[in-house]
Every structure is written in structure tokens, then in C-alpha cells.
Design a protein that fits this description.
By secondary structure, this protein is mainly beta. Helix content is 5%, strand content 58%. The radius of gyration is 29 Å and the shape is elongated.
Length: 427
């Protein structure tokens, strides 16, 4: 073999060695991941920074960090703070106050070519505690309203607003009180602490027509019910997060949260006087369950166990009924003769009904007439589920009472009649 062929064979052999050993990853070679911090089962509170130290060997450049709740990834802000050699320092930031407390898993994934491997470290997150912060109160008459904030210490701050605002909701996620008009004016949001106006959302219908039918805050979501069958999801800056229209169309008047992403809505058909209860997906309006109601719905409340209690007017009486979400059946429980119902709240196994004449209490798990709780009428009810207290507006006064017992306690008074009340939390 001459020198020229010998050099060619040597060159070919070198290329083959390079391809096998250096030009590609060996099959079966996986990254090695060692998480040295935090310690297993370390506990973190809301606002903490979770520092993670990782050693990675036999891997390509970079790691993919995430946090899991069971097998489900949880959105968690993070940054790779430092990378020196095979050591990575990462920070996760516990800033979501709506996360459930309990065990979570840090997952760090690295790659060697197409081969990947993940290391895990368990941690415990303490749930952000829900706290009562106060009340939002609308009062007034005509086209003049007063919006008041009563904080947890009983201090009152008020501001005058224009328009016949008739509905109020408090959002701890946005730290706002949101007030919606019935016929005139714009939906308006105020900073809860200072009552400074933050935004005004121009109502999309022509002046003089009924516009908003209600506004609600469910956890971190705020929903406004419009007369044209739309439901708006509102953002903290006054923007519209999204909207959807109920089918057929149904026009929504009352709502309560069933679970995250699901609500029960009291509606009337757009061209008739037929009323229905709908269980809907609260991101797109898809109807999951529905049931007919005999007359005008005056209020509804989800009891937390697959049952919604609804109160509606029927001639000169008010009817309380139980809507079973699973079967779709509505069962009428009792009648209040010659009393106009204004609101209903069912929480933690206790029900309250507000009429023009009295405030009643009933056991939602047992059939039978309600018992008189207070001998004065109430316009609207709100429940504080941190302190287990029911709030009631009566004329120009607001009272509170224990959920299932005890007398009423004066909270505040207003110059004009109270129109609506809502409870404020820190989340």
C-alpha cells in the first residue's frame, strides 16, 4: 500500500472515531442532577423567595425549572440567578396568593442530546391567609350615589359618584370596589383604601336603556352582567379581560360561583318572561346544566354541595327552591305569603332570606319553614366567611350578626337608603 492510500485510511479512521466519540452523544448517557438546596420538605410562606441550588453533570448547557402540584405544572415566576461551571442557582418567587397550601415539587430537567432527566425536591407552601378587610356600601337615590368603605376597624370613608349605581362588588385581587349603574353612568372602580377612582368603563349600550344587571367578585375574577346577554370579565386596569354571550339569548340577573371556572346564573329569556337557572363555564358561557324557574328570580346562592338555592316572586308570595345540579331538578321548599323577597345567602349549612318585612333563617339540608331571625326587613345580604358573619342592609343602616346565632350589631349608617353591600377580603 503506497503512502497516499495509507494517509487516506488514517484520515478516514480519525473521522470515524470523531463521529462515534465526539461528533454525537452516546446513546444511554443521561444527565446527572443533584439538588442540594432547599432541604426536603422546607416550608415557605407567601412572599418568600425559594432559593434552589442544582449541580448538573453530563448535560448540555441550560436547565428547565418548574414547580408541580401533583402531576400538574403550576405557573411560578423564576429566574436563573447564577451559573458557574456545573452549578446553577435559581430563584422561584411565591407571589400567587391564590395557591392552595400543601406539598409541591420542584422539578429541574436537563438534556444530553435527546436524552433528558429530571431531579425533584419536595417543598411545602403555606396558604396565603384570607382576611376580612371591610365592606363596600352603595347608598343614595335618583342619579346621585355615595360609595362608602368601612374598614375592619370600623372607620368609614365615602365619596360621591354620579349615575344610578345599584350594584357593588369588592375585589381583593385588584384592591378595588367596583360599582355598576342600572340605567345611567359608567361602571367605575375605586381603590379600596383611599377610594380614589381608578377607571371608568363606558357602558356599551345607548343612553337611557337598562345596562348593567349586576356585578360580582369571585375570588380573583370580577364579572359584570349586561342587559344584552353578555357577561364581561374585568381586568384591574379597566380593560376587558374577555366577554361572552349567553345562548338563545339568556339575560343574566344574578350569579354565584360554583368552582373555579364555573358559575350558576339566574337568567330570563330575551324575548319572553321565562326564567331559567344555568350552570355555565365562566370563560366561554357554555351551558352545562339548566332548569326552568316559574317566575322572576330575586336572588340565588350556591350552597357548596351541588345545590343552589333560589328565591323568586310568584304573585303575592316568594318561593324558595332547591336546584340540584346533578339531576337538574328544582324542588320548591316553602312559600312566604305576601312578602317580597330581596336576597338569599346560603353558606356553611345555614340559609338567610331577606324580605321587606323580616330576615329569616333556614336549614338547607332539611325541609320545613324558615324561622324568623330578625323582625326588620333587609334589602341585601353579604357573608363574611372568615368570621362567619352575615351582613344586612336595612333602610339606611347596616348590621352584622353571627351566622347561626346571636343578636345583630350596628355597623354603620348612611344618609340615604343603602342600595347594595359587598364584603372585601385581602385576596
Amino acid at each position: 500500500m503506497d503512502m497516499k492510500h495509507r494517509i487516506a485510511l488514517i484520515f478516514l479512521w480519525i473521522c470515524m472515531v470523531w463521529i462515534v466519540t465526539g461528533g454525537c452523544k452516546k446513546e444511554g448517557v443521561y444527565p446527572v442532577i443533584t439538588i442540594t438546596a432547599p432541604t426536603q420538605g422546607k416550608v415557605y410562606n407567601f412572599g418568600d423567595t425559594i432559593r434552589v441550588r442544582v449541580l448538573v453533570d453530563k448535560a448540555d448547557e441550560g436547565v428547565v425549572p418548574s414547580i408541580l402540584r401533583g402531576a400538574t405544572p403550576v405557573t411560578f415566576p423564576y429566574e436563573i440567578f447564577d451559573h458557574t461551571g456545573n452549578e446553577y442557582i435559581l430563584y422561584f418567587f411565591y407571589t400567587n396568593k391564590y395557591l392552595d397550601g400543601g406539598k409541591y415539587d420542584i422539578r429541574i430537567t436537563a438534556f444530553n442530546g435527546e436524552n433528558q432527566f429530571s431531579g425533584f425536591r419536595s417543598i411545602v407552601l403555606q396558604e396565603f391567609p384570607k382576611q376580612y378587610r371591610g365592606l363596600g356600601i352603595l347608598s343614595g337615590s335618583g342619579s346621585k350615589r355615595v360609595l362608602s368603605r368601612v374598614d375592619s376597624a370600623g372607620r368609614v370613608n365615602s365619596v360621591d359618584i354620579n349615575g344610578d349605581h345599584s350594584f357593588v362588588a369588592c375585589s381583593g385581587a385588584f384592591d378595588q370596589i367596583v360599582a355598576a349603574p342600572y340605567k345611567s353612568g359608567n361602571l367605575t372602580a375605586f381603590n379600596f383604601k383611599e377610594l380614589n377612582q381608578e377607571y371608568s368603563l363606558t357602558n356599551p349600550q345607548a343612553p337611557g336603556l337598562q345596562k348593567f344587571h349586576n356585578v360580582y367578585s369571585f375570588g380573583k375574577e370580577v364579572y359584570a352582567l349586561l342587559e344584552d346577554s353578555r357577561i364581561l370579565s374585568l381586568g384591574s386596569e379597566g380593560g376587558l379581560a374577555y366577554s361572552f354571550s349567553l345562548q338563545d339569548p339568556f339575560i343574566a340577573y344574578h350569579a354565584d360561583q360554583v368552582s373555579e371556572g364555573k358559575m350558576v346564573v339566574g337568567t330570563k329569556e330575551g324575548t319572553t318572561n321565562l326564567w331559567r337557572l344555568l350552570v355555565i363555564n365562566s370563560t366561554n358561557g357554555f351551558i352545562e346544566k339548566q332548569a326552568f324557574i316559574r317566575s322572576e328570580i330575586r336572588g340565588l346562592s350556591y350552597a357548596g354541595n351541588g345545590h343552589t338555592f333560589v328565591i323568586y316572586a310568584l304573585e303575592d308570595q316568594s318561593v324558595v327552591a332547591d336546584f340540584n345540579h346533578q339531576t337538574g331538578q328544582v324542588t320548591e321548599l316553602f312559600f312566604l305569603d305576601q312578602e317580597l323577597a330581596n336576597d338569599i345567602v346560603v353558606r356553611k349549612g345555614v340559609g338567610h332570606i331577606a324580605t321587606d318585612q323580616k330576615v329569616y333563617m333556614f336549614d338547607p339540608s332539611r325541609a320545613g319553614m324558615p324561622s324568623e331571625r330578625f323582625s326588620f326587613g333587609a334589602g341585601s345580604l353579604a357573608f363574611d366567611d372568615v368570621n362567619n358573619q352575615i351582613y344586612m342592609s336595612s333602610g339606611n343602616l347596616v348590621y352584622r350578626a353571627g351566622l347561626s346565632g346571636g343578636g345583630n350589631v350596628y355597623v354603620t349608617g348612611t344618609v340615604d337608603p343603602v342600595v347594595d353591600i359587598a364584603v372585601m377580603y385581602n385576596k
